[in-house]
Hints:
By secondary structure, chain A is mainly beta.
Amino acid sequence: MSDNSVRIPASSQTVGPYFRIGLEYLANRNPVPSIVPAGMVEIRGRVLDRDGLPVPDAMLEFWSGARARRLFDGNDAENGIPEGFRRVATDEKGEFALAIARPAAETASDAHFMVLVFARGLLRHLISRVYLGDEVRNDSDAVLLRVPPDRRATLIARADEKQPGLYWWDVVLQGTNETVFFAW
Amino acid sequence: MPDSSMVELAVPGTQPEYHFPPYVSTIARSPRMPLVLLPRTQMERNGPVFGQGLIGEHDNDLTAQHAGNPIGERILVHGRVWDEGGRPVRGALVEVWQANAAGRYRHKVDTYDAPLDPNFAGAGRTLTDESGYYWFKTIKPGPYPWGNHHNAWRPSHIHFSLFGSGILSRLVTQMYFPGDPLQPLDPIFNSIPDAAARTRLISQLDMDRSESNYMLAYKWDIVLRGHVDTPFEEGHP
């Protein structure tokens, strides 16, 4: 049966302060391994509010595209979560860390991660993107070119100087250096 | 005329604004800079797919996760997940979390002086079936106080998190119960400008699925953004 009337999508409500009860199990299945495998990257950073204070009750979801997607059917490997998807919650210092498959990058426009930001105080999740700082295709990325030049750096994760595959990226919800978020 | 090469925006009034001062926590956490329009790319059209292996045996029966019965009003919460075109969303991951019957969350930052229930964790998850159907057996959550303003109380609600056919169909929301007098007083519920959209977050008493001498049922259908068959097709209104 299908009902072909056009329907209006349901309204969003905040995850609130207690989302760990229902959502953290999935984050906990993917701790950052001591050696991050080839094909994956490690991203670390903080979530900060208007006053530069850490946000200890935020949750981020990273998506690196369909090509990195892997179905899980109970017989499959370790944990049931597609390699191109990661959920992570911030700790009491507002810090997060994750390891995720590199973007599928079938085309130049896919050389990034989509990031969804949830927190107490966010009535609707925010959508951002993060680009890897040593990715040469960033210079010609159509979305980065749409972003005002003085704000582009907020979407770029800095490559660690010592550890290959490690990148640093902060999410600033408001104020100086506010991260670029997208309309949806 | 919307530009179909760009990500579609929500129907006006149906989604809360990020900055909504009556909900005080939005003030320092909502962006103030203009949101940037996003072109549609392959990445936005697709999203993660989760399998049955993620779901444990009692994950959608919150009354059966411990040795004893939880205290409170046993209920069935059920419904179907639809896309914007009226097609069922199959295999959607639906995650829920909630307070217990006394209005207390099993969470370290919940300091409300109401009892925890050793037989109730308040978390569940399931995948929708071939017809987009989901169900949870649980306990009706109680209202609880919060620090937003003097004498602030949240209406009874269950938190829902859903993944649809693409990452843009991602939804986190709250399901409310019919006839709750706290709803008109709640800044979170009232952050949605459109009254009809608010009403769509309220479940309906469902006597057809209620079981005599056992439990009441509440029905709640959920519409996610996008289309299952042709996600975010060109020319969609």
